[in-house]
Amino acid sequence: MKRATIGDVAAVAGVSVATVSRVLNGGAVKEATAAKVWAAVDRLDYSPNALTKSIFAGRSSTIGVVIDDLTSPFYLGLMRGIDEVADANDSLVMFASTFRHAGSGAAQIRTMNEQRVRGLIVTTVEATDDRTRRMAAGGTPCVVVARSVQDPPPRLHSVALDNRAAGRLMAEHLISCGRRSVGVITSGGRPSQHGRTEGLRQGLAEAGLELPGDAVTSVDDNEQVSAAVGALLEHRTSVDAIVCLTGRRTVAVHSALTSRGLAIPDDIGFLTMDDFAWAPALGVTVIGQPSHRMGQKAAELIVENPGEAVQLTFEPELIARTSCGESG
Amino acid sequence: MKRATIGDVAAVAGVSVATVSRVLNGGAVKEATAAKVWAAVDRLDYSPNALTKSIFAGRSSTIGVVIDDLTSPFYLGLMRGIDEVADANDSLVMFASTFRHAGSGAAQIRTMNEQRVRGLIVTTVEATDDRTRRMAAGGTPCVVVARSVQDPPPRLHSVALDNRAAGRLMAEHLISCGRRSVGVITSGGRPSQHGRTEGLRQGLAEAGLELPGDAVTSVDDNEQVSAAVGALLEHRTSVDAIVCLTGRRTVAVHSALTSRGLAIPDDIGFLTMDDFAWAPALGVTVIGQPSHRMGQKAAELIVENPGEAVQLTFEPELIARTSCGESG
DNA sequence: CTGAAAGCGCTAACAA
DNA sequence: TTGTTAGCGCTTTCAG
């Protein structure tokens, strides 16, 4: 029942533990000795203890990821990207989500630090900044996703979308589809959403269109969406397009529209963030983020561990379908 | 740059390492001493090494999860459930996916074993059976998801849907909607799909309806779906409903239908596995699995670590919407 | 090429 | 209440 240790293997093989260690990790050993060791390994079903190993390395080979909502298509793509390069580098991914806790993930980050993860990828809010900074200072490369860091210390990187560009892309497309008055749904106070709003506002302004403050509504969860959309539509009857600034709310906003009997795009235009599996079928036009590549890059930053802070910005992409009407 | 160790803390606080260990883990220490220690911890930004700790416990406090496709709504729900109870038990989730590799996850399971995970949850195919059995034999509780294990050794549990019941539920609903000839899309050779097919066949048979072998088509990926659906429809012109036996293919099958100009449910009925966010909006009737509860249960089996093997079966639930037409 | 011995950072008796 | 002393399972000098 008790697990075999390297000592047991050594005993069975009739060699020293040092020798066993060497054949396991590819040191110089005589063919014949190695064979004896492997036989013992087999017989005892020996599995080296990676935990003990990492004591010497000072850290584990695991990449930590703290995400606040796996449900969103963006994070799913991100995870796949991360997992992919982790796998290619014989790393595992240690995952913790925070969507239940208001605490914003400080606890998770602490735990990851205690686990001596090789690096950390975080998507949670600024409250965690301090912890992340200290981890980076302690030598663990950290990557912050979907948010840039002001004045980053050496090992604190970031991977983010050019949110203003995303906003502008939205404005351009809406305008080219003849929309004149947009209503916006944002979610919580994430900085990325500010960028998008600003980009949108600017893009609209360049075409002489306004985005008044009361055309922007923030919702905290899916339950609020229907009421928020309703209020927006009633308050501003001129609105001819609804823009959803976060992929997390796409379903809810879309349902809010259709369940009011509004036809998309005839009665109202609809534009949202993040491509998703059903979008082609539904004809929903989106601004796509390269979430998969972003995940890969984040993980690569961990693996390559550059000395300076690197801030990567990715370009959004308009994936035009039919939900805003005919373009041009 | 070098991390502080418990020894450093002891030195700064002017006490022994044992004392530091005690205040960190809640032993009996004098108020004043504890204060000194905490001060030192603070000053050095000390973070205890969880890896070293688990040497003594013999295993880490991490729950390992090997999943083959995070993209599927079922696995997402499962993950949430797992993460939830892991979190409640101060565990982290170590995640590895296998969807790139043909290798079916043997490597991932080995790594998890080396990481001395507290328990393992696997969703990959039978090829991994041996490894899982050995892990269980070695004392690590393992839970196999969506598949039952024949003749399970002590610590090898399973959490699965009653697939025959799911099939029967499908049959019942289709019949009550007046469908007489169904076409089936399955994916790969997963045993769960056999159960569903059998249940469906039985349920149909009880109503005097047949499910001939050529009405069942298996596809390996989304690219094959359109052709497969086309072939099925052309070969069996009587088909008035398409059943998709895996949530993983829902989008592709649905698109295959609509892109052929078929209206759901008027031209053809559509029924699939696993509820998903857009299903209400699309009116897609599904057989739901309690994926979230299944994840929770799987994680609880790890945490509670019962001596015998336990096999949990969950009941599927029909979530009737409009895609099969009017029922009754 | 191989073994003995000294740790890695921490916990757990056992004394004091 | 505290400190001393063994280890945990492994890697890594340093001799042989």
UniProtKB/TrEMBL annotation, chains A, B:
InterPro entries: HTH_LacI (IPR000843), Lambda_DNA-bd_dom_sf (IPR010982), Peripla_BP/Lac1_sug-bd_dom (IPR001761), Peripla_BP_I (IPR028082). Keywords: DNA-binding, Repressor, Transcription, Transcription regulation. Pfam families: LacI (PF00356), Peripla_BP_1 (PF00532). Residues 4-57 form the HTH lacI-type domain. This is LacI family transcriptional regulator. It comes from Streptomyces marispadix.
